[in-house]
Amino acid sequence: MDGNGRWASARGLPRAMGHREGVQALKRTIQAAPDFGIQCLTVFGFSTENWSRPAEEVSDLMGLVRTYVASDLARLEKAGVRLRILGRRDGLPSDIAAIIEKAERQTAHNDRFMLQVAFNYGGRADLVDAARRHMQRLLAGETVEPIDEDTLAAGLATAGSPPLDLIVRTSGEQRLSNFLLWEAAYAELVFQDILWPDYGPKALGEAVAAFAQRERRYGGREDAPARVSA
Ligand code: FPP
């Protein structure tokens, strides 16, 4: 969800207003996603590196999570959305950790659409945590499976989620910035020159159309059928 700060600066507004508009764009995008055949949408809300932003901005972002969940959780639950938060719980304000747990618990029975919010998330941190947990079980004397791609993937925050097909980066930047590093191995990348607060059904449709044009080979030579999800 990149470009909130630039969107606000271009209008002479504080960055907090850009993040607030970013939440509106998120709502539009969630609503539109199932119409494009998307079963699972993952958004980057706060990275393990975002703690280095000024305290006021960090506090604004935490505040937005509080108000978003308070105002939208019941509606999301009713709409069949399952919420899953990816990221480290340690280090989060305790009320945010409690809000996250409640949101996950309250929507766990839903299976129409999955919304994953990466929050206090970093792709590297997630890989480190998965390897560390494996090692700790070993050191505790448990019988652990040998590390291979399946056992490592099973320890990640996204374990059990649908495979990642498409990564969209907004705002014209062209990098992954520590997002879903493992999961991105064979994802298609689409870079859109639009600031996140302006995002919505039209831009999402353009990203999906670009994805549909891609030929996915997964390192092989045969054409593979495209799966649509983000
Ligand atoms: C990147 O734009 C955006 C973020 C770091 C935060 C995104 C968060 C929200 C939209 C709201 C809170 C989240 C939830 C889940 C309710 P930037 O600030 O880096 O913008 P810039 O690159 O233009 O400075």
CATH architecture of the domain at 21-39 and 162-230: 3-Layer(aba) Sandwich
Q: Give a short account of the largest sheet.
A: 3 strands, parallel
Rg: 18 Å
Query: What is the number of helices?
Result: 7
Report the strand count. 5
What is the CATH homologous superfamily assignment of the domain at 21-39 and 162-230? Decaprenyl diphosphate synthase-like
Secondary-structure element series: HHEHEHEHHEEH
Widest sheet: strand ordering: 1-3-2
Name the assembly state.
single chain
Range of strand content? 5-15%
For the residues shown, what is the average pLDDT? 95
* CATH class label of the domain at 21-39 and 162-230: Alpha Beta
Helix percentage: 40-55%
Briefly note the CATH topology name of the domain at 21-39 and 162-230. Undecaprenyl pyrophosphate synthetase
Could you name the ranges where pLDDT drops below 50 across 5 or more consecutive residues?
none
Shape: globular
Distance between the termini: 13 Å
Explained architecture:
The chain is an alpha/beta fold and 230 residues long. Among the domains are: 21-39 and 162-230, Decaprenyl diphosphate synthase-like (Undecaprenyl pyrophosphate synthetase, 3-Layer(aba) Sandwich), CATH 3.40.1180.10; 122-159, no CATH class. It is built from 7 helices and 5 strands; from the N terminus they run ααβαβαβααββα. The chain has helices spanning 4-9, 15-32, 55-78, 94-107, 123-139, 149-154, 201-212; strands spanning 40-47, 81-86, 113-121, 166-169, 188-191. α4 (94-107) links the parallel β2 (81-86) and β3. α2 (15-32) packs parallel to α3 and α3 (55-78) runs parallel beside α4 (94-107). The longest helix is centred in the first third of the chain and has 24 residues, at 55-78. The protein is globular. The two termini are 13 Å apart. The structure holds farnesyl diphosphate. Farnesyl diphosphate (FPP) is lined by residues 1-6, 19, 22-23, 26, 45, 50, 61, 64-65, 68, 117, 171.
